[in-house]
Every structure is written in structure tokens, then in C-alpha cells.
Amino acid sequence: MFGQARHVLQVWDYHHGQSTRIVVAGCPPLRGRTIREKQADLATRYDHLRALIVREPRGHRNLLGAFLTEPERPESQAGVIFVHPDGYFDACGDSTFSVAVALVESGLVPRTTDDGEQELVLDTVLGPVPVRVTLRGGRVVAATMASGPSYALGSARLETELGTVPVTLAWGGLLYAFADATALGLQLGAELAPATRERLLDVGTMLWQAARAQLRADVPGLAQGRAVDLVTLVQELDEHGRPLPAGSTAQPAGARVANFYAPRTMGRTPSGTGTAARVAALVASGRLPLGASYFHESPVGLRFTARPVRREGEAVHSEISTMSYCMGIATLVLRDDDPFPTGFLL
């Protein structure tokens, strides 16, 4: 059956609104000691495999991917390289949740409890990421990620077709520019008319392209002149789920969000790194105290819950929780005569 196969990859598909395809076998060994070195080798020698798993016809524009590797550190359970249809993420909260749940559910990481919490450490390009997996009656029911150091990075202004748009910059593993959806006259939520969703895609794409072209920020201890990775439209909510007025200084209970990381590409989840970045910005502004509960709700109604747990100088550390679900186990094949060896995007 696979006689003409150039590559045969074993993958597990998980989702929590956003889908992640986890490559568990079939990728050739990657060179390098660190995850950053392995990511560079994947990008240099096997980038076609990255494109193959997440692009059409095997994937789609909103599919994320994760390549499992051996861990970088002896105390870690696995290494992970995060990918998407246009390239690589140094960090990805969405895929972190999926990988952690998959490792425990599959037995790749032996279970230490059937009722309680199991600690994992995943090695990534940005370093080790602790994840706590919760089990009840032998079933995984939640995963909680400890964010790395996250930073509020000030404010900026985007010059766009809509005029000047104020944004807040923050780092949570990726660099985010947050824009107030209410101030822009935009609605967010799971029950939107098609025309409203199209408007969101248009505005989100415009802001993302403007931010990529116009904004740079220095991330303490990590990067100088970093380009914006994602733009997030935010509609803050009070404790009753009602939108707060634009420019409110009240403590929000949470927010509806829409994340954009490529043209006309709106994330299906609230984003783990985005939630960490937003929490850091709110803590720095004095609007969210340490220990307070906060949530982000995605365009499909999925919620991530978060809690800032400590502050070290300018860095804010948070815990973010959700659940990810297995939806498929598959074998992907690339024949040597396939007309789309790297897939395609329309």
C-alpha cells in the first residue's frame, strides 16, 4: 500500500475548539541538542513535513501542529516543536495543552495517578514548560499550564484605514498587540451573523498586517526589536458577562477575544500565550490583582481560565487551564509522485 511512499507519519489529532495535529512517529531524527537546534534542523531539512501535516489537502489554514522529540533535559518528559501553516511558533499554549493530555492519555508518559494531578515538563524553544494534568476516575479532565515570564510592554498606535488605533503590547511567549473591539464598534462572541464575522476577519487582518509592518518591541531577556506575532481584539466583560465600556479601568472578570496570526486567520481558542500576555498587561496596570480569577472566551465560545500567581520584578507568572480532546488517530502518507508534496493554502 505504501510502496511508493516517500514519508509515512503517525499523527494524533486533538482539539479544544482549535485543532492540533501531533506527529508521534515518522519524522526522521532531528539534529541538535536543544529544541531550538532541532527546530532549525526541521526547518532546514524537513520543512516540507511541517507544511504537509497542516496545509490542505491533509490539513487546513487554522490547523496547528506539534512534532514530538526527545526531551532536552533529563527531568522533562518530552520535547515539542510547534508549527502552523505558515511556519513555526517558539511557544504555543494551545498545542501545549493538547500534547500534555495526549502524552498521559496514550501512556507515552506513564500515569502516576488515576485520581489527582500529574506533573509534566515539556521542553520547548523558549525553555521548559510545566503542565499539570488532572485525572478523575482514570480519565484526564483538565490540563493547567504554568506560563513562562510574561511582560506588559507598553502601548502603541497603529495607523490604519480606520484611522489611528491604540494597542497594548504584551508578551506571553509570543508578542501580542491588543486592540479594544468595543472602541472599534465590533462585536465578539460565538453567536454572530456571517456579515459580522466577515467584518471581524477584515478588521483583524488589517490590524495584524499593520502591526507586523509598524511595531517592534524589546522583550526582557529574550529579544530586541521583536515583531508582533498576533493581534487580539478584546471585549472586556464584567462579573455578569456584560461588556465593559471602552476605556474602562474596572477589574474585568474576563473577556471575549479574537486572535489573528495570518491574513484572514482567526484563532478558534482564546490562546494560552495570549491569555498569559493579557493577564500580564492587566496586572501591570493594576486592574487584576495576584490570585484573582480571569477568563478568555474564544469566537467559538471556548473558555480558558487563568490566575496570576506571582510577580518577579516586571515578570508576571500565571496558571492557565482548559481541556483538550482526542478526535482522531491517523497515518499520513506522502507518495513520491504526489503533486502537492508541501500541501497548499487557498
Automatic annotation (TrEMBL):
Keyword terms, alphabetized? Plasmid
Under InterPro entries, the record lists: Pro_racemase_fam
Q: Which Pfam families match?
A: Pro_racemase
The family this protein is said to belong to? Belongs to the proline racemase family.
Q: What is this protein called?
A: Proline racemase
